[in-house]
Amino acid sequence: MVQRFSRSLRFRFLAALGGVFLLALISLAALSKWVIFPALHKEERAVVIKELAQIERSLNISQQELLAQARDWSIWDDTYEFIQGNYPGYTDTNFSQQMFEEMRYQLMAFFNAEGDVHFLAGLNPATGQYHTCYTAERECRWMSGLIRTMQSSIKEDPEQGKSRLYAGTTPLMVASNPIVRIDESGPPQGWLFKVRPMDDAWLTITEDYTGLPTTLSMVEGGINNDTAVTISGNTIQAQRYLTTYPHNEQLALGTQLNRTSYLASLETFRYVLLWTACLMLLVIGLVLLLLERIILKPLRTLTQFTQQASVDLKGSSNLLGRGDEIGVLARAFQEQFKHQQQLNAELIELSTHDPLTGLPNRRLFDQRLREVVNISLNTGQPLSVMMIDIDHFKLFNDHYGHPEGDICLQRVAQTMHDVATAHGFFIARTGGEEFSAMLPANTATQAMEKSQSLSDAIDQLKHPHQRSPVASYVTVSIGISQLDIGGVMTPSGLMTAADQALYAAKAAGRHCAKVYTPSLANATISSHSAPS
Question: Gene3D superfamilies, per this entry (predicted)?
Fold first, then answer.
């Protein structure tokens, strides 16, 4: 009887299905371990390295700005006369503590043609006191180490004209250039060095500009790899090692990202794998029930039903009403199909909306923005965007705590959603306290009017914010840009322009809106790069 059972179609089919099931489980496990999980991890590493590269680009821009300022001063005829001793009023006219504080300089050093100190001016990092000297002695003794390093640099490369990072307890950004006539004729008469500290204030400016947490630290010796990525719990950190002068230390420039998105994707994938395995088991059981009857007509009927179920289940009432095994199988399939549709809808909702506020997230906003930009470019209709930032939200969190911060975000988000719905535009949460809106068929002027409605609605909440320097309640700053203004033709360019306008709104005192113009962008840049 055992031999007879082993030869039966039921046994052979069960053995075949069991083998297929085991092979599928092994394949899924292998695919997950060696393909899916490494791919997700690789993507996560790529994201944090990309963010770190953005911070490094910001550092390079800062170095180029400081070098440009040093060059402007060093090819100035007044500086040329001063280094030759022909302009005694040069220091009184051009140097002050206020200038050093506004330009965020720590030291300016002038050297003569022999490489000796001609004039020094700077802010003592320990006391904040402003000093001017002709030698690195007495009150200017704190400059002596830097002066020796600069003189070594001059001896190594008299041509200068470079920007370097100097090692130290507080890393320094140093730019230098030979002092020549304004037409750059004749030999150099000396050298000018400008020093800017990369301190907490510099880190704050960099974080505000990039929107990313930034760290700096000095590392002894050489590092083999340029970039190191480490994972600690829910955080992934990346560090890039930059060469400093002298070369016995390196500067570690770093950032970190929360791994919540990656871990959620991982958990979702595991959940899908589990459901896939359960679904496979269910199918095997259903097929065995069909084989118990060994009838071809119900099997063909079931095949037709499964083919129709993926399109429309309404026409299968006769099959669903059957009282036999085929009817049970058909109803189970329908229930599973509906449940799977519900799961798919939930997954789509999770991937495109912010769980705290319920607003669309950055992923959905970027996708919609690309579509709307293409439509606007093809039709010629105007398109405007807004970047909205809650004023001094970090102070709010520090004072009230993060739970109250979440409540504040929810209230502000609901208010902005109501305004957006009433005025017919799309709004999303694209950062911690940052929101973005797109307004198809709206010019920047129209967007400004709607931004006022948005700001007024939030003001009417009167949500308390005792630590805000702007008002006693929560307020917002808004940056506005329009497609094809100042050559802005891409989604990223459009958002960058809005970000510059938002920066201008913050610089203007916050609780206001600014529209991007090329002149506004130039003014923003020049405020950090023009010599005093």
Answer: 3.30.70.270, 6.10.340.10
